[in-house]
Amino acid sequence: MTRDAMPNAFRPGAVDLTPQEADLVARRQAALGPAYRLFYERPLHLVRGEGVWLHDAAGRAYLDTYNNVASVGHCHPKVVAAMAQQAGIFASHTRYLHDTVLDLAERLLATMPKQIGHVMFTCTGSEANDLALRIARAHTGGTGIIVTENAYHGVTSAVAEFSPSLGHGVPLGPHVRSVAPPDPRRIGADAGAGFTAQVVAAIEDLQRHGIRPAALIVDTVFSSDGVFAAPHLLQGAVDTIRAAGGLFIADEVQPGFGRLGEGMWGFSRHRVVPDMVSMGKPMGNGYPVAGLALQPGVVAEFGAKARYFNTFGGNPVAAATALAVLDVIEEEGLIANAAAVGGLFRDGMLALAKDHDHLGELRAAGLFLGQDVVTDGAPDAVKTSRIVNGLRDAGVLISATGPKGHVLKIRPPLCFAAGDVAFFLDKLQGVLRRL
Question: Which of 1, 129, 162, 250 could share a disulfide with 267, CB 3.0–4.6 Å?
Fold first, then answer.
């Protein structure tokens, strides 16, 4: 499978569509153009969400086991109420004094190590990583970026250049070097040491080409590389990039906000303190709010020479919505829930694998699971697609990830319950039996 082949994609003409589906696809292609993609062999027409469920136009319910955007559950009433209430009072940018954005900044910083003292707000994780790149360049004087080989960090022009998972149609920048993720099967049993060695080699290659390193950026659960969830992997790599004059950026867009069941942030599992932390999708439960937390010394040079302004980043509606998300995570015990229910999920998948040879290695932390699908031990993207689409037909939504497209990516809302795990496992059992 090439990087250009998006896992789990709708391909026009591959399946027969109903007249209504065909009309929607045609309208979409005409209005939105050729670059957009749809999930599933037969695309879904969704109209409503509630908790862990999504509902299509015919009224059928689907268990959402993939969507970390609605991190605390689709249309959570407390989040919706906070959003609507603030929208009815005041919505403007951060060039006026306003309490709400400060309340949000202080709440977020209280979850971070004491060395991280500022937060800058954006609308998306892509923007947050774009801003991190600008600051890293200003602070270090370098331009070189090191990423994992199938990483996704965003879609702005600058960030797309270090998002290899976007495919060959989006080439990496000449200042970018990619390294293997900490997969013991590829880089040795001591994955932390192996990953550090990869970063050392990337730094040396940048320097050999006259490029000064600016940053190592890592999704702290290596989501798009296939989910590598072991802890204590990053200290050597972080020390190495700093010794070379660069910074460490923890991309918490996917693993952050309690998903891994061990505190708020994935980087804490690796016992490192990042120079910058980018946040996105789950922060607003569907509302576009994102941010970049950072150590004060890192932004000093940038702040002395550049004004930062984002019309919608940190506006009162975004801040009120994100505050409500933090409230729900705390009040409903969703980090502990991610640990407990994630443990049930992991154990259930391992038990299922005993009866199904197509389920290979499982890597899991909290409510983030990556399940290899194999045939005779080799990655099997075709069977992965059959499982994903079979589950869709059975009323369960997941996706696939990894450079070979053979990893089931399981990432449900944090309010997932034991009964939801049982429903998922029952449907997966049925799909596997039909393979």
Answer: 250
